[in-house]
Amino acid sequence: MNAAPGAAADAKETARIEAFSDGVFAIAITLLVLDLKVPRGMAEGRDLLAALVGQWPAYLAFVTSFATIGIMWINHHRMFTLIGRTDDGLLVLNGLLLLGVTFVPFPTGVMAEYIPRAAGRVAAAVYSGTYVVIAVFFNLLWWYAAHYKRLLMSAADRAVVQAITRGYSIGPLCYALALGLAFVSVAASLVLNLALAIFWALPSQNPLVKKGEAP
Amino acid sequence: MNAAPGAAADAKETARIEAFSDGVFAIAITLLVLDLKVPRGMAEGRDLLAALVGQWPAYLAFVTSFATIGIMWINHHRMFTLIGRTDDGLLVLNGLLLLGVTFVPFPTGVMAEYIPRAAGRVAAAVYSGTYVVIAVFFNLLWWYAAHYKRLLMSAADRAVVQAITRGYSIGPLCYALALGLAFVSVAASLVLNLALAIFWALPSQNPLVKKGEAP
Amino acid sequence: MNAAPGAAADAKETARIEAFSDGVFAIAITLLVLDLKVPRGMAEGRDLLAALVGQWPAYLAFVTSFATIGIMWINHHRMFTLIGRTDDGLLVLNGLLLLGVTFVPFPTGVMAEYIPRAAGRVAAAVYSGTYVVIAVFFNLLWWYAAHYKRLLMSAADRAVVQAITRGYSIGPLCYALALGLAFVSVAASLVLNLALAIFWALPSQNPLVKKGEAP
Amino acid sequence: MNAAPGAAADAKETARIEAFSDGVFAIAITLLVLDLKVPRGMAEGRDLLAALVGQWPAYLAFVTSFATIGIMWINHHRMFTLIGRTDDGLLVLNGLLLLGVTFVPFPTGVMAEYIPRAAGRVAAAVYSGTYVVIAVFFNLLWWYAAHYKRLLMSAADRAVVQAITRGYSIGPLCYALALGLAFVSVAASLVLNLALAIFWALPSQNPLVKKGEAP
C-alpha cells in the first residue's frame, strides 16, 4: 500500500529519535524542581513564610528554565514535523542539542543560588551563555537537516524552510544580548530570557504554525 | 480511507502532547520519593525504627501527593479523550498545568519537613495553595478547549462537556477550603487533600466514565 | 474492518496505562543510583578504593532492588498481555502497585545505610516488608482483573489464569519469609530477596511464558 | 493481511523492551547533571567564576558519560533493528546491560570528585572499569541473540551480523586499555574514553549503518 517502503522505515527512525528526545526534554524539565531547596530549621510559621518568599530568585529561575525548555521542546517537535529521514550526522547534532538541554538544571541552580548576591552577574551570564550555546546547537541541527533539503520531507515548502532558517538564526543573538545585559542588570537579563520564551510561544512568530493552520 | 486527512495529523499532534505530558506526570510522581530522607546515624535498631516511624508526616505527604498527581493524570487523560485537535493556546495552557505538576515535589518536601512543627500551618497552606493554582490551570485548559467546543472532537456529547465543566469548576474551591482549614487544623487540611484525590478517583463522580461505560 | 470498535478503544486504554506504568518502572529503577553516595574527602587512592569497597552493602541493595523492580516490570507486562480492558478499579489498584514501586528507592537507601550496623536487622525487615506490601498489591490487581475473567481478554486460557493466580499468591509469603529471616540473619534475608528476583526471572517458573512459547 | 500472526506479536514484544530500555537510557543520561554541584558561599563574581571553572573535571566527566551513554543508546537501537523476537534469556541479558547503564552516574560522580586529586587514578580506573563491564554485557546480549541467528530476523544479512560481532568484541578491550591508562595518566584515560564514544559515532565504523544506507 506504501509506494516507498523505505519511507516507512525512515519515518520509524525519525519517530524513535523524536521519542528519545521527548523523554530527555520531559526529564530535564521535571528535574528543575530539584533546584528548589526546602528551608531547614525555621522555628515559626512566619520564619518559614519569609524563607519561602526570600527564595523568589529560585522560583524565577525555575519558571524561566521551564518555559525555555518547554519552548525548545515545541520547536524541536515542529522541526521534526519537516524532517523526513535521519542519518548519523543528524543523530550527533541532535545529541549535542540534548547535551545542552540536560545541562540546563545546573546553570539554573547556579542562578537560583546567586541572583540576589554580588556574584549574581556572573551567574546570570553563565545562565544566558548556556542558552547561547543551545541556540547555536539548534541552528546547527536545522542547517544540517535543511541544507539543500538534505533530510527534509519532499513536501516541505521552501518558503517555510527559509522562514524557519531566518527565525532560528536570531536565537543566539537574542541570548547573547541577555548575556551582555547580565553585566548591566541581572533583573533585565532574566526578564529578557523569560520574555524570549513567551515571545517564541506566540503563534504569530512561528512560520511552521502558520503553515500548519493552512488547510 | 480517511475522509479527513487533517484529522489524522490532528490526532497525531494531540497524541504527542499527551505522551509528553504523561512523561512529565510519570517523572514528577516518581521524584516524590526523593522527599523521603534516610535517617542518619541511628545506633540501634530501635532508634532507626523510631526515626522511621517519626517520619510519618513525610509518608503522608508522599502518599497524598502521589494520589493527587495520579488523579490529575487520570483527569488529564480523560480530558484528552475528548480533545480532537490542538493549537498554540492549548500548548501554552497545557504547559502551565505541567509547570504546576512538576512543582509539586517542592511543597511536598516543605510539608514533610514542617507538619509536626509550629510552622506546619504555613507549610500545609503552601501545599494546598499549590493545588488551588493547579486546579485553576486545569479549568483554564478545559475552558479553552471546550469553549464553543473549539478543540473538542465533533462527536463529543454536549451534556458530558457541561458536566465536566461543572465538575472541574469545584476543584479550586475544594483546595481553597483545604488551604483555609490549614490555619484551623493541619491534620484536617491534609486529610481533606487526600480525601479529594480518593473521591475523584471514584467512577461515580466522573461524567466521562459514565459516558465511557455507555455502549 | 474491526468487528468490535469498542475493543480497539479498550486496547488503546490498556496500552496507555501500561505505557504510564512502564515510565514509572523505568524512572524508579534508574533513581536507585541516587542511593549510591560518592565518598568525600579521601586523600589517597587507597583510601578511595577502601571507601568504595566498604560501600558493598549499598551496591548489594542497588542490585537487589534493580532486579526486583525489573522482575516486577516483566510480570506487570505479562499480566497486561492478558488484560483486555480497564475500569476505574483497575486504575486505582494499578496506582497502588505503582505507589509501592516508586517507594522502593527509600527502603533501598535505608538498607544501604544500615546493613553493616547494629540497626541492620530493622533496615532489612523494612526492606522486605516493602516487598510484602507490593506483592499483596500485585495479587489484588491480578485478582481484580482475573475474577470471573472480569477484565481479561476472552481468549485468555483458564488454566494459564489459574496458574498465574497460584504463582502470584506465593509472592507475599516468600517476602514475609525474607522479613522474618532479617531478624535471624541480615545476609540471609538479602540473599533470599535477590534469589527470589532471579528465580522468578527463570522462564520455567512462569506459566505465561510457557503459553507464549506454544504456537 | 499478515502471513505470520506470531511475527506481529514478536515485533510488539521487542518494541516494548526497546521502549523500556529507551526510557532507562534517557533517564540515566539526564540524571548525569545531578553530578554537577552548585558552588556554595562564593562572595564575589570572580570567586564564583573561579569555582565554576575549577569544576572542569566534573564537566569533562559529564560530557564523556553523556557521549558514552548516547553511543550505547544508538548501538542498542541498531542491535534491535536486527532482533526479531525475544525470550527470557534476552530479557535477563538486556536487564544486565541496563543495570550497567543506570550505574554510570555513580562512577561519573566519583571521577568528577577525584580527577584533580591524588586519588584520581583510582577514580578513573573505576570509571573505565564500569565501561569494561557494560561492554561485556553488550557482547553477551549480542552473542545470545545472534548465535545461530537465534533471535534475529530471518532477513538479517550474515555478513552484517559477523561484522557487528567483530566490532562489538573490540569494545571491552578498548575500555580495558583506558582502565590501564588510568594508572599512567588520568588525562589520557579520560581522553581515550571520550575519543571512543566519538569514534563509534562515526558512520564508517558501523556495519549496520552501511547496510542501512543500501537501498
From TrEMBL, chains A, B, C, D:
<protein>
    <submittedName>
        <fullName>DUF1211 domain-containing protein</fullName>
    </submittedName>
</protein>
<keyword id="KW-0631">Potassium channel</keyword>
<feature type="transmembrane region" description="Helical">
    <location>
        <begin position="175"/>
        <end position="202"/>
    </location>
</feature>
<comment type="similarity">
    <text>Belongs to the TMEM175 family.</text>
</comment>
<dbReference type="GO" id="GO:0005267">
    <property type="term" value="F:potassium channel activity"/>
</dbReference>
<keyword id="KW-0407">Ion channel</keyword>
<dbReference type="Pfam" id="PF06736">
    <property type="entry name" value="TMEM175"/>
</dbReference>
<keyword id="KW-1133">Transmembrane helix</keyword>
<keyword id="KW-0472">Membrane</keyword>
<keyword id="KW-0633">Potassium transport</keyword>
<dbReference type="InterPro" id="IPR010617">
    <property type="entry name" value="TMEM175-like"/>
</dbReference>
<feature type="transmembrane region" description="Helical">
    <location>
        <begin position="48"/>
        <end position="74"/>
    </location>
</feature>
<dbReference type="GO" id="GO:0015252">
    <property type="term" value="F:proton channel activity"/>
</dbReference>
<dbReference type="GO" id="GO:0016020">
    <property type="term" value="C:membrane"/>
</dbReference>
<keyword id="KW-0813">Transport</keyword>
<keyword id="KW-0406">Ion transport</keyword>
<keyword id="KW-0630">Potassium</keyword>
<feature type="transmembrane region" description="Helical">
    <location>
        <begin position="122"/>
        <end position="145"/>
    </location>
</feature>
<keyword id="KW-0812">Transmembrane</keyword>
<feature type="transmembrane region" description="Helical">
    <location>
        <begin position="89"/>
        <end position="110"/>
    </location>
</feature>
